[in-house]
Amino acid sequence: MTERLTVEFTPAEGAVIRVLGVVERRGYVLRGLSMKEKADTASLVIDVEPREASRRVPVLAQQLARLVDVRSVSLAARDAGSLA
Q: Is residue 84, in this structure, part of any structural domain at all?
């Protein structure tokens, strides 16, 4: 099942790469990506799907929240039929 994470962060050098690197290294497939940026904040919306059923997206959200420049991470469940 694909799930959507919204990552609010400070737009700094390497911030997006750090987020996407954690997603990949923790065993998730990136299914969608969009980003909005303002002067002092940015929002990255990513749709992810675990490579294995044992992977839990809330754990990924906690790992992302620990990254430098990340302000918050929120999770919203999505079903496969609602992907754009």
A: no
